[in-house]
Amino acid sequence: MAEFWEEAFKDKQEMWGFEPAISAVLTKDFFVKNGVTNILIAGIGYGRNAQIFRENGIEVTGIEISKTAIELAWKHYGTEMIIHHGSVSDMPFDNNQYDSIFCYALIHLLDYNERAKLISDCYNQLAENGYMVFTTITKKAQTYGQGKQISKDRFEMFGGVKMFFYDKETIQEEFGKTGLFEITEVAENYPFYLIKCQKINTAK
Predict the structure, then answer these.
(1) pLDDT by residue (tens digit) across 142-194?
(2) Omega of the bond leading into 92 within 30 degrees of 0 (cis)
């Protein structure tokens, strides 16, 4: 996976442009409304979805598997932004607890065990009452069912990319124990779900 994304960024550089994704804008609005002051972005890429949070006074820390992407992020947005180099599968990279965590279009690239670990690791790094927001591809995507099926709702396509397609039932299964409270549909380059969870201490 690391080699794939390293080559992808080297080949295409700033492949998605510099405008933030629709999901990032919606998440920024939600975080600002709820007084978030810091955020961990799992899979920060070259920073296009990070800058909108920084512009709204939210301190950003990132995790990114591609050294090329990190160099591009620092080139465009400044080297003061902390970005941990490594796979999200190796979380945690620090002992901090964050007001919020954002993970854009990444979790569906992982297998079941990796997805479960990522959800758990992100939840564990949330401060009490903190929010985590994930975006993921849905079964409504035209690519659902294409390529080689490798497990239920997971297919290999695009020269080796393995992609899992979510429905609301699967989201409930995977996120139900981590404060899931909202699932909304967002139309981007693919149909996505925007998944919101909150860490609430229910201990008496």
Answers:
(1) 999 999 999 999 999 877 889 999 999 999 999 999 999 999 999 998 899 99
(2) yes
DSSP code string of 62-75:
EEES-HHHHHHHHH
Report which residue type is found at 203.
Answer: A
What is the rounded CA–CA span in Å between residue 188 and residue 135?
11
Distance CA 133, CA 194 (A): 7
Give SS3 for 151. Answer: strand
Assigned token pair, 109:
């690239």
pTM attached to this predicted model = 0.90
From residue 146, how far is each of 4, 69, 71 by CA, in Å?
Answer: 20, 28, 34
Tokens, residue 119 = 């959800």
Alpha-helix runs per DSSP H in the chain: 2-12, 22-33, 51-54, 67-77, 112-124, 168-175
98-104 and 126-137: which strand pairing? parallel
